[in-house]
Design a protein that fits this description.
The protein is an alpha/beta fold. It is built from twelve helices and 14 strands. The strands form three sheets. It has a ten-stranded parallel sheet with strand order 4-6-9-10-11-14-1-2-3-5. Strands 7-8 form a two-stranded antiparallel ribbon. The protein has a two-stranded parallel sheet with strand order 12-13. The protein is globular and about 60 Å long.
Length: 345
């Protein structure tokens, strides 16, 4: 099997720093490859939902971890001054010793831009802004560039100095499934392209589109790692599952994928797995996502390994798991103990 990278998101919404730090250090000890935070200034869909700011949180996690890579899924490039963002990322990477994977996207929540003094541009202009920001950041982080000057339509900088430089060239992740702008941009500038949880069922088609674009511009497909974001829900019974789904819909607002859609369901044995799948079928209904679908990662740890291998056969070798629930350690530990050894062996 190809080298598999498995990351996990750190609890961040309605969590204290102590909770995020504890989960992160446990995830690292379990053997996960990377830790991820979402980059929002407001909790999704509501300014009143507490959330730890992404790059401040990553700076703290960089100081209390040693091995795992650390990334954002994803940073909207229009939400901050781009040159300041470049300096922040370089500093956090210095704290981490070269372990940062900055993930970028165009953003979607207007108020977390406008309430903090940044314009929320129309979609096409935000995509231009995304591309221009990446151009500037790469110049700022380049050891051969003493002072970066850049003038685009939306991004401007004159002789901006970024010292210290990041310890390594930060690998750029582009997140999103748009075929007109996002995937072509990923083909051009990304080291990693991440498919959203909400479009997991479309992964074969999206991979084809990425490969076609890579072929069109003459870039080696091996230069772009394909990543899949996965929302993981585990529940012991139907009532608990419905409660978890309602909480996910309320907190995430769908941007992490429909909790009634493609799921990762893990159970300790065949009987428990079958029960969980039957409950999911009752609750979700076929039109809301089939837990027995071709790419649904659902079942026992053995079944989970099989389904991950199906993703690998499509060229997807990186997985970013969102273990949903107030308590995320238990499902992560089951995955680490029963799935990771099969993927890493």
């Amino acid at each position: 099997m190809a080298d598999i990278h498995v990351g996990v998101t750190v609890p961040q919404i309605k969590r204290s720093w102590q909770e995020s730090r504890s989960a992160a250090t446990e995830f690292e000890a379990m053997g996960f490859d990377s830790l991820w935070v979402c980059d929002h200034l407001y909790g999704p869909q509501s300014p009143t939902i507490p959330i730890l700011e992404a790059w401040s949180l990553l700076a703290g996690l960089a100081a209390v971890t040693d091995r795992v890579e650390l990334g954002t899924l994803v940073t909207p490039t229009g939400m901050r001054n781009p040159a300041h963002l470049g300096k922040v990322v370089a500093t956090v990477d210095a704290i981490a010793g070269g372990r940062i994977i900055p993930g970028f996207g165009a953003g979607w929540m207007a108020r977390e831009h406008t309430d903090f003094g940044m314009p929320f541009l129309p979609t096409a202009q935000r995509m231009d802004q995304l591309a221009e920001t990446i151009d500037l950041l790469r110049a700022m982080w380049d050891p051969a560039v003493e002072a970066a000057t850049y003038h685009g339509t939306h991004v401007h900088a004159d002789d901006v100095v970024c010292l210290p430089k990041p310890p390594r060239r930060p690998p750029i992740l582009i997140g999103g499934a748009g075929e007109q702008r996002t995937i072509p941009l990923a083909a051009r500038v990304a080291d990693i392209w991440n498919n959203l949880a909400g479009t997991q069922a479309e992964l074969p088609h999206k991979v084809d589109r990425l490969r076609a674009e890579l072929d069109r511009i003459g870039r080696d497909p091996a230069e772009v790692t394909i990543s899949q974001q996965c929302l993981v829900i585990i529940a012991a019974d139907e009532a608990a599952a419905e409660t978890a789904i309602q909480q996910a819909e309320k907190i995430f607002g769908g941007h992490l994928g429909d909790p009634r859609g493609d799921l990762v369901i893990i159970a300790a044995d065949e009987a428990a797995a079958e029960t969980a799948i039957q409950q999911a079928e009752k609750i979700f209904g076929g039109h809301l996502g089939d837990p027995r679908g071709d790419l649904a990662i659902a079942g026992t740890p053995e079944r989970v390994v099989e389904q991950i291998r199906r993703h690998v056969d499509l060229g997807c070798t990186m997985f970013i798991a969102e273990f949903f629930g107030r308590e995320t350690i238990t499902p992560a530990r089951l995955f680490a103990e029963r799935v990771l050894p099969e993927l890493k062996g």
